[in-house]
Design goal:
Strand content: under 5%
Order of helices and strands: HH
Distance between the termini: 9 Å
Radius of gyration: 12 Å
């Protein structure tokens, strides 16, 4: 269970970095953003 929690935390941190990168470039990635917001509730509830 702890390994799963660590993977979820790493996923969240990587996504945060990616979104920050996109903001700095004034760019978007709507496909990734859709997947991210669809996935986050599932991994956050664990």
């Amino acid at each position: 269970m702890e390994l799963s929690h660590e993977k979820n935390k790493q996923f969240y941190e990587n996504c945060t970095k990616y979104f920050e990168f996109l903001r700095k470039k004034s760019s978007t990635d709507y496909d990734f953003e859709d997947e991210y917001y669809f996935t986050m509730p599932a991994i956050s509830s664990r």
